[in-house]
């Protein structure tokens, strides 16, 4: 779910396939035959505007890397082609129906934001500050005639970031899943240059790209794609100038669920 189209689009698939290879080699006493491997069908999901084609173009390199991994773990040269891993794209929103009933064995959602209970207020304020910057830039572009007043006034961001306890409560209340594991973790967003020093420009790029990954579809749909590059370029300049070095962190959550 939410696979996007960059180099990470197939990263989780690689982890899954590597785990399959290792398990088969272990269970076969160190030698695995392609004929014993299951056929694995992978569905990559994102919104219809996602660039699935760029991901499909990278599949050959992905398959080549799988073959190298398979051979390294004890497989036989050339047999990876017979051990089928099929990849398909499923465009659409997961708020609607995407798959037939009982058709999936494993589901991975690429990222879900999370906050620790005592961090809800401060981190929510930081997210609001970022969107205030976006609003200020859009207002400036309005004064330059690049954004329509009606579109700016009608644009709203329904931002709400849950805590881990809220996530747990929602899952238990819905009742379809058992929580196998739930953990929060801290992610450092600061980038370090080749000289070992914090790189403010790269920090800004990380922040801009993170925001762009989740907001570009809605911004493009509402304002049009003509303003997008300038909007995020301006935001990057502000981030580079004002982000506190060494303090740029975010919190995430990992949840493993088993269907009831």
From TrEMBL:
Keywords per UniProt: Magnesium, Metal-binding
Molecular function GO labels: metal ion binding; methyltransferase activity
Signal peptide per UniProt: none
Entry-linked InterPro entries: MeTrfase_7, MeTrfase_capping, SAM-dependent_MTases_sf
Superkingdom, natural source: Eukaryota
Entry protein name: Uncharacterized protein
Source organism: Papaver somniferum (Opium poppy)
